[in-house]
Amino acid sequence: MPTINLPNPDRSITPYTLTGDPIPFVKFKSTDFSRIAYAAAHVVADPLAVNDPWLTPAIDWDTTLKFRHRLWDLGLGVAEAMDTAQRGMGLSWTEAKELIRRAQAEARTRDDALIAYGAGTDHLAPGPDVTIDDIIRAYDEQVGFVEGEGGRVILMASRALAAAAKSPDDYARVYGHVLSNVKQPVIMHWLGEMFDPALQGYWGNIDHDAAMDVCLDVIAANADKVDGIKISLLSAEKEIAMRRRLPASVKMYTGDDFNYAELIAGDDQGYSHALLGIFDAIAPAASAGLAALGRGNTNEFFDILEPTVPLSRHIFAAPTRFYKTGVVFLAYLNGLQDHFQMIGGQQSTRSVQHLSELFRLADKARVLADPELATARMKAVLQVNGVKA
Question: Does pTM top 0.85 for this prediction?
Answer without folding.
Answer: yes
